[in-house]
Amino acid sequence: HRGFETVTYLMEGHMKHRDHLGNEGDLQQGGVQWMTAGRGIIHEEMPQQQDGLLRGFQLWINLPAAEKMKAAGYRDITDSEIPRLDLASGGQIKAIAGEVTIGNQVISAPVKGGSTDPLYLDVKLRAGETVTVPLTQGYNAFLYLFEGQVGVAGETVKTDHLATFTDGDQITLVAGDNGARLLLLAGKPIGEPIAQYGPFVMNTQDEINQALSDYRDGTLTAEPSSL
Asked: Measured between alpha carbons, how far is 146 from 144 in angstroms, rounded to an integer?
């Protein structure tokens, strides 16, 4: 990879990881792997079932041009490190990234800030439950519903559908008759052109071509001073 971050959230099963930096890990159920590709990272992921189950999500977070060639990084975040907020009606919000105030309670995730300032929430709602989540004005936001259904601004989002939002400072979610489970995400727009090919996310096609050339030459992960 080059030019962005990968955020792998494993809900069921586990996943073994190894990369050129010498990092080795075994991401467990409920945990998150936060990997900054930066200039370049070469890695392998080996998903494993647990009790016959394997389920999770991988989000790609773009980096601005000024950070696309920074040093690579890797972090495993265990399920126990990720805070939860229990809602009054029985639901729960799990904060993977960012910080948010629900009612009068603040929930602060292990990963915060950065140039894109991501908010990444796993929201579980009981049947008919309602929650309002504040969002930063001017940020892009979307949700992906993977269980049940949820009402948002008069629209119904069904299972396995994604909904994007117009600009605003909050979003109210109303769970359907069978409850709802969804990922709610927001982040600061970068406002730069995107060129993507395979495992590379850059700003121009020339930069993509350079990434391919660097990989073929064995210099994808080299420090700039050693090129």
From this structure: 6
Please report, for residues 91, 101, 184, the alpha-carbon distance to residue 132 in angstroms, rounded to integers and kept in the order given: 13, 10, 12
Cross-strand pairs, 175: 150
Rounded to the nearest 5 percent, the helix, strand and coil shares of the chain are 10, 55, 35
Range(s) for CATH 2.60.120.10 in the chain?
A: 4-78+193-226, 83-187
Considering only CA atoms, which of 136, 78, 135 is closest in space to residue 110?
A: 78
Return per-residue pLDDT of the chain as tens, 227 residues. Answer: 999 999 999 999 988 888 887 878 888 999 999 999 999 988 888 888 888 889 999 999 999 999 999 999 889 999 999 999 999 999 999 999 999 999 899 999 999 999 999 999 999 999 999 999 999 999 999 999 999 999 999 999 999 999 999 999 999 999 999 999 999 999 999 999 999 999 999 999 999 999 999 999 999 988 765 44
CATH domain 83-187 topology: Jelly Rolls (2.60.120)
Distance between CA atoms of 13 and 28, rounded to whole angstroms?
A: 7
